[in-house]
Amino acid sequence: MFEKDVLGPIMLLGIMLIIMGIVLLILPLIVRAGIRLEEIHPLILFGRRLDGVYIGTSPILIMIMVVIYIVLLLLRRS
């Protein structure tokens, strides 16, 4: 029923996606608290304001997702 490897790569990816979802839910509360998006460290959130719309991404999350992708790719080959 359960595998030996409790924290397999797919479960780890699911946990990361849940954490990212929680961060997205909390982000509006942080903005209401008075923390401006421009004051957040560039590794956590990098973005630009275009015509009143803030478009951003997280370089650290991109790096984490690339590492997870490479690990999954190497596990699939072996």
Over all CA atoms, what is the radius of gyration? 17 Å
Structural class: alpha+beta
Tally the beta strands: 2
* Mean pLDDT over all positions: 80
In what range is the share of β-strand residues? 5-15%
* Widest sheet: strand ordering: 1-2
Number of domains: 1
Question: Topology as H/E string?
Answer: HEEH
Instruction: Write down the overall geometry.
Output: elongated
Q: End-to-end span in angstroms?
A: 23 Å
Number of helices: 2
Helix content: 55-70%
Largest sheet: 2 strands, antiparallel
Unreliable stretches covering 5 or more consecutive residues: none
Description:
With 78 residues, this protein is an alpha+beta fold. 55% of the residues lie in helices and 13% in strands. The protein has two helices and two strands; from the N terminus they run H-E-E-H. It has helices at residues 9-32, 59-77; strands at residues 46-50, 53-57. A two-stranded antiparallel sheet has the order 1-2. A hairpin with a 2-residue loop joins strand 1 and strand 2.
Fold blueprint:
Layout: H1 9-32, E1 46-50, E2 53-57, H2 59-77
Antiparallel strand pairs: 1-2
Highlighted features:
alpha+beta, two-stranded antiparallel ribbon, 78 residues
Write a compact overview of the structure shown.
The chain is an alpha+beta fold and 78 residues long.
